[in-house]
Amino acid sequence: MTDSTLDPTAATLACSLDELDEMARQRAMLPRGTVVGNYRIEQIVGEGGMAAVYEAVHTTIPRRAAIKVMHPFLVGRWASSERLLLEARILDGIDHPGIARLFDAGVLPDGRPWLAMELVEGVTLAQRIIVHGALDPIEVVEVLLQVAAALSAAHANGIVHRDLKPENVILTCKDGRLTCKLIDWGIARSAEERARRLTGTNMTPGTPLYMSPEQARGKAVDGRSDIYTLGVIAHEALTGHLPFEGDSPIEVVIQHLHTRPPQMRARLPHLPAALDDLVQDMMAKDPEARPSLADVEARLRAIGDELRVLDFDIEIEIDVEDYDEDPVQESELDSSIRVLRPVWTPPLDAPATTGRPTIRERRERLVPDPTR
Question: Could you confirm whether 163 is annotated as catalytic?
């Protein structure tokens, strides 16, 4: 056989493998009408490294739900299955309006665990930042207050989220007011569990761009780690930029370990000094130096009073004509429940605003946990 016949064959083989991968992915999806527990699948609304998420309707009562189903190739991997079931146990043990409710859980005949959860319609905080860049301090304070309240409920039950990021905060409007839901508790940790129980390796779970110093070092973490990460999210939402950036995740992690976060007022002089100081305190390298969640909430309320946020109705206004609706593309950002039936989803190469990366660039920077 000559070289001229080898190259087309190799190209054909490559195409065939790509097609087989796509066929396998399609076969893994549950078709419309499939019954999972007491829910009938209507459509897929998200897909990540560990699971796919479907919109479904209850077969008896008029309830819609999000069904999260583990990917077939993870069947038999104890850590992956246990993580999904852990999320079910966590959600079942926390009753708070800022955390998506769990309706049911089970295992498919092929061994895949599934969760039936509250269907949350809205946009992620990440999407909001991507499109608008720096958000209004009024809006950010309200988001932080609600996320802090949800974390307080989790911490009171001995649960540390460990993977806070804008992709895991869903924003909706209810009765004309901004409402937040904190999602993706798949790598959360209860107080009595060892950090390596679900990973089976020495790798640290979480997202490097938002990781606390102690989490980056692989040390045992408590609620103070979530406070640090919430400070990182606050900095990004208020300025449109992460406090630390680099060409690789390790460069960012090193800065989380050793570099003092930049003052936000150096970039945005109009920000209240109290808000800048609070974010600096939340991102203290020493966990002992960080404020408690109760202190964070109290200081946010005082700042909110200054901004008159507590008497201000916030609405998310988005020109849907500027964006293509493609929830599966957006869902590639992370492995959480994500935005279910989003109001909008920017295309992967949507132009950045105020220096923000495109969705594709952000996805590439959000290096996924290798264990997912």
Answer: yes
Backbone angles phi, psi at 329, to 5 degrees: -60, -50
Are residues 337 and 46 in contact, defined by beta-carbon separation less than 8 angstroms? yes
Other CB atoms within a 10 A radius of the CB of residue 126 amount to: 26
Active-site entry in 163, 276, 334, 369? 163
Domain residues for 101? 35-118
95 contacts: CB under 8 Å, gap ≥ 6: 101, 153
Which parts of 71-165 are beta strand (E)? Answer: 102-107, 113-118, 123-124, 159-160
Whichever domain contains 315, its CATH number is 1.10.510.10
Smallest Cα–Cα separation from 66: which of 44, 90, 81? Answer: 44
What is the tens place of the pLDDT at every residue in 257-307? 999 999 999 989 989 999 999 999 999 999 999 999 999 999 999 999 988
Model confidence pLDDT, tens digit, residues 201-230: 444 556 889 999 999 998 888 999 999 999
113 with 188, same domain?
Answer: no
Residue 16 falls inside a structural domain: no
Q: Residue 33: count other Cβ atoms within 10 Å of its Cβ.
A: 8
26 within domain boundaries: no
Same domain, 76 and 142: no
Tally of structural domains, the chain: 2
The structure's pTM equals 0.75
